[in-house]
Specification:
Rossmann fold, three-stranded mixed β-sheet, 13 helices, binds nicotinamide-adenine-dinucleotide, binds thymidine-5'-diphosphate, seven-stranded parallel β-sheet, globular, alpha/beta
Length: about 350
């Protein structure tokens, strides 16, 4: 199976690529990634030597480069992770969110129409449903009601993907996952930021009253779900992927402090995020019945393992913060020919 993976140098994408290549020798992967601040070739170093792995630095908004990649690699399936992914950044600089998340997705869909693929899996988010009042959970039929530029741009991409299924019979799949956590997550999202700050004895900024609720999904469970949907999902369908672990932010922060053996005095309440969604909650019955997937990582063990990973890899956090190791040149891989481009 030849898989074209966009955004494969980011958090979830790189976990997916490492997991998929480790699991099967039959899978051949070409990663297309622009290597923004969130993309890091070091995340792919464990698979860089495999003959089944290729990387090309491509902006998904660049139609000619994307078409070239499809023409030369001829993917049988696409897994589309590439996106601007952080809500706070989208509030301050929305333009990149609209162009990468909406236009970039449109460019990929056009290329997949020109060079037909068996599956086009678009990785989306529970945030497209907006805030869900308790005790309800959003199923896939719930109308989209995004609250911030990030979730609005993802909702726009979802609609574009569905439109290509209707207009061009493109065999698309959409997955909408809840908040991910785990190794290699850029320390701007709640859990990795709280871990890296706690380990450095820095304040832990909690927005508003800290009583907002999120559903937490370990990234390895998410990646298994994407593999399951790719293999057994019904074309044209959308699948929610929840972690069955709903928790208020302040509780998450307290557990991080416990795992890091740091005092609660590090918690600092700060002004709330504008348009902050109070609660996300997913109904994931459909993915379970169609594919048999279930989340298998408990939050406690997943969080311990994540804290251990950040504790064991302080140089990774230091390098992503300083913006090092983002280019072929930095890694010297192009000279060594380990990341042949297409
Ligand atoms: P990330 O920010 O860690 O990684 C994004 C990757 O996309 C980076 O490698 C970046 O270099 C690349 N990229 C950005 N713009 C690009 C462009 N124009 N062309 C090519 N590559 C580009 O994101 P993540 O947390 O791994 O999320 C991956 C996907 O999963 C996103 O689509 C996101 O919306 C979705 N998602 C994330 C979560 C979460 O909790 N992190 C939850 C549900 C869904
Ligand atoms: P985040 O990880 O940014 O994901 P999302 O906004 O996509 O859910 O934030 C998760 C929750 O944590 C969200 O309710 C905002 C909150 N939060 C804080 O309280 N402090 C922080 O420093 C960050 C980054 C997030």
């Amino acid at each position: 199976m030849r898989l074209l993976v966009t955004g494969g140098a980011g958090f979830i994408g790189s976990n997916f690529v490492r997991q998929a290549l480790r699991r099967s020798r039959q899978v051949e992967i070409l990663v297309l990634d622009l290597l923004t601040y969130a993309g890091n070739l070091e995340n792919l170093a464990p698979v860089a030597d495999l003959p089944t792995f290729r990387f090309s630095r491509v902006d998904i908004r660049d139609a000619a480069a994307v078409r070239d990649a499809f023409r030369s690699f001829r993917p049988e399936a696409v897994v589309h992770f590439a996106a601007e992914s952080h809500v706070d950044r989208s509030i301050h600089s929305p333009a990149e969110f609209v162009s990468t998340n909406v236009t970039g997705t449109g460019v990929l869909l056009e290329a997949a129409r020109e060079w037909p693929v068996g599956r086009f899996l678009h990785v989306s988010t529970d945030e497209v449903y907006g805030s869900i009042p308790a005790p309800h959970a959003a199923d896939e039929e719930r109308p989209l009601s995004p609250s911030n530029p990030y979730s609005a741009s993802k909702a726009g991409a979802d609609l574009l993907v569905s439109a290509y299924a209707k207009t061009h019979s493109l065999p698309v799949l959409i997955t909408r996952a809840s908040n991910n956590y785990g190794p290699y997550q850029f320390p701007e999202k709640l859990i990795p930021l709280m871990i890296t700050n706690a380990l450095a004895d820095k304040p832990l900024p909690v927005y508003g009253d800290g009583l907002q609720e999120r559903d937490w999904l370990h990234v390895h469970d998410h990646c298994r779900a994407i593999e399951a949907v790719l293999a057994a999902g019904r074309a044209g369908e959308t699948y929610n992927i929840g972690g069955e672990c709903s928790m208020q932010n302040i509780e998450v922060v307290r557990r991080v402090l416990d795992c890091c053996r740091k005092p609660a005095s590090l918690i600092e309440y700060v002004p709330d995020r504008p348009g902050h969604d109070r609660r996300y909650a997913l109904d994931s019955k459909k993915v379970k019945s169609d594919t048999g997937w279930e989340p298998s990582t408990s939050f406690d063990s997943g969080l311990w393992e994540t804290v251990r990973w950040f504790r064991d890899n302080p140089e990774w956090s230091a390098r992503v913060h300083s913006g090092e190791y983002r280019t072929f040149h930095d890694l010297n891989y192009s000279q060594r020919g380990e990341f042949p481009s297409v």
